Structure formats: C-alpha cells, structure tokens
Amino acid sequence: MLRPGGAAFLDRDGTINVKAPEGAYVERPEDLVLLPGAAQAIRSLNDAAIPVVVVTNQRGIALGRMDEVDLAAIHVRLVDLLDREAGAAVDDILHCPHDRGPCGCRKPAPGLLLAAAQRHPHIELGRSVVIGDRPSDVEAGAAAGVPGLLLGRDAEDLAHAVQHLLAPVSAI
C-alpha cells in the first residue's frame, strides 16, 4: 500500500494521542497524552524515510474552545513528546479549524491531504496511505486517491498499522 514517494498521513486524536471524551477536546498542551506505541511507530516511519504528515480536524477552534495559539502550543507538546519518547518526528501538521458543514478541508473532504501534497511536492498521493480511527479519515484519503487503514478495523492501533505497512511483501 505504501510505496516509495509516498507519505503516511496520520490523524491525531485517537490515532497518535488519547482522544478526549465525546463532546470534549484536547484544548491545552497538558491534555495531550500519547497512545502507547505511537511514538515508536512514527519513529519506525522516520527510520524508513517515509514522510509523516498529521492531518487533523480541530472543531474546537470553531466552537471557541481554543484558538490557533492554543493549538500551536498543543502541537509543540506533540512534537516534544514524540521526540522525547522515541526520537520520532513529523514532517508537517495540517488542521481544519472549521465546524461541521461544507468546507473543503474538514475530513472526510480531501483538502488537508491535497494541501499537504502542494506544500510537499515530493509526496505522491497515490503512493501514500492515511491512517485514522474514524471512517472520515479513510474517506478523506479515498477522496484524494490515498488508500487508508482504519484503526479498529484494519489494524488494532498505529503501531500495528505501521508494522503491517513496513513488513516485507513476502511477510504479508
């Protein structure tokens, strides 16, 4: 599924970090807690020279629960935790700040993936994969021509998804 020239597009909440309870949001840096194995999974992608791009809906901004400065601080913590836990890094983080409704970037729309491909012309969408915990994550991938893995259906968690993606073809 993942081929040279491709990237790993990862959802954030529920894929990399613990998702807030229904109706709540990760609103402050201290609210962000990595899921077990997530940092090492991203490190494995780094070691395989696969670009890692986080694509995340952040409706809390539209609802006034946080602002862009708050989100930037949360992402600084994410980057710091990934580095401290496993020496892992992400190449970019893109977010949709909009509420539900028509917008081109809120997953399941493909806008975040298309924007990432524009910002990183070396990424070929058709050689990439999107990994997330909600159907809207893989639907966004499909709309952009990117195959997807749905956690809980196609893989138990991010670590297992990455392990599957990096397994030699003969082992699949």
UniProtKB/TrEMBL annotation:
What are its E.C. numbers?
Answer: 3.1.3.-
Cofactor(s) required for function per UniProt: Mg(2+); Zn(2+)
Q: Where does this polypeptide localize? A: Cytoplasm
User: Which InterPro entries does the protein's record reference?
Assistant: HAD-like_sf (IPR036412), HAD-SF_hydro_IIIA (IPR006549), HAD_sf (IPR023214), Heptose_bisP_phosphatase (IPR004446), Histidinol-phos (IPR006543)
Residues marked Contributes to substrate recognition (site)? 106
Q: Where is this site: Stabilizes the phosphoryl group?
A: 56, 107
Keywords per UniProt: Carbohydrate metabolism, Cytoplasm, Hydrolase, Magnesium, Metal-binding, Zinc
Q: What is a single molecular function from GO for this protein?
A: phosphatase activity
An example GO BP is: carbohydrate metabolic process
Q: Binding positions for Mg(2+)?
A: 11, 13, 133
Q: Could you state one GO cellular component term attached to this entry?
A: cytoplasm
For the keyword Nucleotidyltransferase, the answer is no
What positions constitute the catalytic site?
11, 13
Per UniProt, where does Zn(2+) bind? 96, 98, 103, 105
Could you confirm whether the keyword Hydrolase appears in this record? yes
Q: What is its main location?
A: cytoplasm
What Gene3D superfamilies does the record tag this protein with? Answer: HAD superfamily/HAD-like
The similarity annotation says:
Belongs to the gmhB family.
**Official protein name in the record:** D,D-heptose 1,7-bisphosphate phosphatase
